[in-house]
Amino acid sequence: MIKGIGTDIIEIERINKAVKRNSNFLNKIFTDKELEYFKRRNFKGETIAGGFAGKEAVAKAFGTGFRNFNIKDIEILRDDFGKPIVYINGKAEELLKAYGNYKIHISISHSKENAIAYALMEVD
């Protein structure tokens, strides 16, 4: 059964400015594994913006936004084919235990100016 859906769109330039303005921005938002992925992608703005939009979309699919958990509790990595995979940790994982089994699907894309993500959360 579908529990929730979420979408987010963000201007890539907005993320680029945040990274330049605040040297700790990336460390506040992303896990070490996500940062390693960005490093392999040469810290491209569209990749970082897509990761940020993905986290926002997943939080919206929860129906709570980021209330009661940290943005880093949502981790978006890639499989061997580049498909984004969502991992839930920490307090966010505790919140989802109430649903028993769950699955989160995510799609991330970008244009020259914007990054967008769509997330769908299924529960048993």
UniProtKB/TrEMBL annotation:
One of its GO terms (cellular component) is cytoplasm. Its main location: cytoplasm. It is found in: Cytoplasm. InterPro entries: 4-PPantetheinyl_Trfase_dom, 4-PPantetheinyl_Trfase_dom_sf, ACPS, Ppantetheine-prot_Trfase_dom. It comes from the Bacteria. Its cofactor is Mg(2+). It is an enzyme of class 2 (transferase). It catalyses: apo-[ACP] + CoA = holo-[ACP] + adenosine 3',5'-bisphosphate + H(+). Residues 4-99 form the 4'-phosphopantetheinyl transferase domain. Pfam families: ACPS. The keyword Phosphoprotein does not apply. GO terms for biological process: fatty acid biosynthetic process. One of its GO terms (molecular function) is holo-[acyl-carrier-protein] synthase activity. Keywords: Cytoplasm, Fatty acid biosynthesis, Fatty acid metabolism, Lipid biosynthesis, Lipid metabolism, Magnesium, Metal-binding, Transferase. Its EC number is 2.7.8.7. Mg(2+) binds at D8, E56. Belongs to the P-Pant transferase superfamily. AcpS family. Transfers the 4'-phosphopantetheine moiety from coenzyme A to a Ser of acyl-carrier-protein. HAMAP family: AcpS. This is Holo-[acyl-carrier-protein] synthase. It comes from Clostridium liquoris. The gene is acpS.
